[in-house]
Amino acid sequence: MNWHPLTSAEQLDTVIEESKSTPVVIFKHSTSCSISATAKSRLERQWEKAGVDHVKPYYLDLLQYRPVSNEIAQVLQVQHESPQLLLVQDGVCTYNASHLGINLDALKKKVTA
Questions:
Q1: Largest alpha-carbon pair distance within the chain?
Q2: Rounded to an integer, what distance in angstroms lies between the CA atom of residue 3 and that of residue 71?
C-alpha cells in the first residue's frame, strides 16, 4: 500500500478533483491512538488482497494537520471521527467508516470505477 500524504486544504481541493476520474480514499489517523494504529495496520495488511488497488489512498495525520481534517468534514459533509476512512468518488463521499468498523470489503462494494 502506497500512502499519499494529505497536508493542506489546497491539496484537498486537488484530491476531490482527482476523485472525478479515479476513486480515492482518505484515512484520517491519530498517531496517539491505539485504535487508530490498529485500523491503519489492518488496512495496510488487507489492501493488496482486497482488490481495490485502483483506489488511490491518502493519509492524513490528524495531530499535525487538524485544520485539514476540519476542512474535510465541512467540504465532504461528514462528521469528524478518528480513525476514519472516507471513499470519495466524483467529488462526493460515498463511504464513511470509523474505528474498527473500517472494512475493505464494504468499501469495495461502494467503489464504482
A1: 34
A2: 20
Which residue, among 94, 85, 99, 97, has the nearest Cα to 112 in the 3D structure? Answer: 94
Q: Which of 52, 57, 112 is nearest to 86 (CA)?
A: 57
DSSP per residue over 69-82, as a string? HHHHHHHHT----S
CA distances (Å), 48 to each of 3, 21, 40, 98, 111, in order? 13, 21, 14, 20, 15
Contact 43/27 with Cβ under 8 angstroms? yes
Closest by CA position to 40, among listed 1, 94, 93, 79: 1
Give the whole-angstrom CA distance, residue 107 versus residue 25.
9
Cell 478518528, residue located: 82
In 3-state terms, what secondary structure has residue 28? strand
Q: Kindly state the cell numbers that stand for 90.
A: 466524483
Q: Tell me: the pLDDT tens digits for 35-82?
A: 999 999 999 999 999 999 899 999 999 999 999 999 999 999 999 999
